[in-house]
Amino acid sequence: MSIRAAPAPLAALGLLTLGACLSRGGEGPVPCGGVVWDDLVCGSDTECTRCFGSNQVCNQNLHRCVIDRKDCTADRDCCPGQICSPAFQQCIDRATPCGCPVDAGSCGVDAGTCPVEGQRCQTVGEFPAVEGCAFDPCGADGGQCPGALTCFGGHCVGAAPCGGGCAQGQVCVVRTNTCWTPNVSNESCALICAFGEILVLTDGMNVLNRCSYAGIKCACRSRPAL
């Protein structure tokens, strides 16, 4: 894996092309090839890069064009499950390190342990793809989970994630068990939950590299009874 040491010029990233497609004299989105960026249902990266720039790729879960390897100056510029690397000024996926590398060989029974019940040592993210602790997905709340785990926030948890909830103004990212501060005005992510509830993302998998910012929504969910 390689990460460039400094942000490339805007034209190289295709951002100038994207701007030309999306705006014209403050009139709002302008069709590009007959399709507006927010409305394009994509099936491949080619469909996105052809019109919207070389840094645009197709999110295969949402079928929407999204930014790949986003430049940043702070964590809040990134997807909910990412941090901003100060060395490279790019958003990178993050995860809680496993208690012991799964391929270390000498860790014995502690190999791949994670600090929260229900988390599993696995490959998390793709930029970079790192070994870390994460809850396994279970689909919509109420989905099936093994053993005593409960489907919450789209993931199988064995304890209330994010220590039972994040500080006001932050959202619990269940997959990575971290708190995220939204960068943009998003009324659903500014909710103040009642006692016994946790503010979480409605799409728990839309959190790592290539996330759709337009698809980020939040809701209060009752804390799992575990």
Shape: globular
Topology pattern, helix = H, strand = E? HHHEEEEEEEEEEEE
Low-confidence stretches: 1-31, 104-111
Q: Which strand-content bin applies to the residues?
A: 15-25%
Q: Determine the fraction of residues in helical runs and give it as a percent range.
A: under 10%
How many distinct domains?
A: 2
| SS content category | mainly beta
- Total helical segments: 3
Largest sheet: 2 strands, antiparallel
Side-by-side strand order of the widest sheet:
1-2
Terminal Cα separation, in Å?
40 Å
Question: Which radius of gyration do the C-alpha atoms yield?
Answer: 19 Å
Taking all residues together, what is the mean pLDDT?
A: 75
Tally of extended strands?
12
Please tag this protein with its features.
226 residues, mainly beta, 2 domains, two-stranded antiparallel ribbon, two-stranded antiparallel sheet, 12 strands, 22% strand, globular, disordered N terminus
Describe the overall structure:
By secondary structure, the protein is mainly beta. The protein has 2 domains: 58 residues, no CATH class; 148 residues, no CATH class. Helix content is 9%, strand content 22%. The protein contains 3 helices and 12 strands; from the N terminus they run αααββββββββββββ. It has a two-stranded antiparallel ribbon. The longest helix has 8 residues.
